[in-house]
Amino acid sequence: MRPKTTAIAALSAVALLGGCASLPSNSSPHVLRSFTPADTATPNAGPSADEEPDLLLRAFYAASAIPDGDYEAARAYLTENTAEAWNPSGPKLVVDSFGVTTLPGAAVGKRRFSVHGNVVGTVRSGGSFSPERGRYEATIELDQVDGQWRISSLPAGVVIERTELRNQYQPYNLYFFDAEDRELVTDRRWVRTQRETLAGDLIGLLMEGPAERLRPALPDALPSAVTFTGVKDGAFTFTGFGSVSAEDRAQFAAQVVWTLATAGITGPYRLVADGNPLIEGADELGTDDFVDASPLVETAGESTLYALIGGNVLRVDGRTTKAVEGQLGSAGDVASADIASDGEWAAVFGKPDDNRDDILRVGKIGGREHEVMRAGTFTRPSFEPGADAVWTVADGKRILRTVQSAATGELSTGEVEANLPEGVDGNISVLRLSRTGSRVVMVIDGKLYTGIVQRGASGERSIVNVLEYAQELGGSVVSAEWRPDGSLIVGTSSTSPVMRVEQDGSSMTALSSGNISAPVVSVAASPSTLYVTDANAVLQVPSSGADNPIWREVPGLEGMRALPIIAR
């Protein structure tokens, strides 16, 4: 495993050269700065004249997705006293859809309804989505006021349908540096805002810090005195940077620039701190100034494709395949492997059902290799960024992390504690780290879970804030992998064999099934192509383009069942 390299070195150079800028657990304390988004202009909203009570109730829930003016649109559906008393604060509960049923026994001029739906998640302060499972049930009472129906009794809080979340809010990515100041980590937020105020609102969210679930993986580099003071004469202005180092200024500038750029806000950007350019000598900044820290770096080019076939690893180049050098390409009993972009590899050796322990080894293509340990079974290994360490799960239970000493070159393996949800105690069949190493996806007894990788004071790791995603898939999940954009590609044994699951778990989409025959036992994703291994062969499809593309066999691997491996 190779020593780490850091993108922040490039940011520091920009800062120092002046004019050359061309449900939470185990969270560490963070300074949060209050953020209030600008109100969005809304069309005239409110109940229609003589609206039937059940329709008025549904219209109220639709209006509840509009927070402008302290939920002015939703309060218009309430009686005067109820409108004053209703408290919409707290997380927004999101349900798949509402069912409305009339309850018997209401007096004249009154109606009682049961409102129910399946909970799919919550939207917390700052727009972060958290998937949840449960049942929403509430009794709502309506009275006739001057001949018009109005809601007279309802629970506190806001409940909206998932379709209204998509109609009224847009997902945007905030970016924060990881604990090693090397990678920008995506923090997806649902924001309701006008386009002309979007830039300021996103920076306001950046100032609050990472979403609560992500905080164990991300530091807060800025002191509490740093404040965003708004947009003045086209410049984003801040105060409180007097004690902030050049390196931290460059980090923060990179966060701002990439957050604005990926939201479609055109640069260059003027960042002013305490009356002067945030980075000395850099009046304007753009993505070219922080290209080494780009969160989109993997979308800029191709990745090397390897394939594990018949116990050997082959490199796939065009329509040809060639075994890689060394044991990885000739042993004949490679069961799974992960490969880094410079040829570092970690692999499990051992044939199934041979009543012998499998062997975990690490090495470099054409170079040295080392045995790490033996166990009855291992999941497919997964590298941290830069191949600094490799993770795997031994015997379905023990999550292991192997690192190499920079001083002695010796390998050491420690166990990673995983704080799984209550009642989850099955075997882990898949464990994959995200590109930044801040997140992990696991398949446990056919269900999909994601967690946050927390770093301890002495370098140890643990998995916290684990949530189940794509709950509708039940126990049909077979394989999962992170895509370069941060979402997940998931293989199943169901009638929808390949799914896309968003990074925050807010939704999932069935991908084209084409000629795929479930189960999909392996999935992989490069910047341009998705790969799956189904019951017959390894197939590919462009990652973007046609709405319903056909999966085709991979050139050079026709008629073969293989494990696709994308070197990253």
UniProtKB/TrEMBL annotation:
Q: Which residues cross the membrane?
A: none
* Signal sequence interval, chain numbering: 1-27
Which named protein is this? Lipoprotein LpqB
Q: Which SMART domains match?
A: Germane
Membrane topology per record: Lipid-anchor
Q: Which family does it belong to?
A: Belongs to the LpqB lipoprotein family.
Subcellular locations according to the entry: Cell membrane
Q: Which InterPro entries match?
A: GerMN (IPR019606), LpqB (IPR023959), LpqB_C (IPR018910), LpqB_N (IPR059026)
Q: What is its main location?
A: membrane
Alphabetical keyword list: Cell membrane, Lipoprotein, Membrane, Palmitate, Signal
User: Locate the GerMN domain: which residues?
Assistant: 199-282
Pull one GO CC term from this UniProt entry.
Answer: plasma membrane
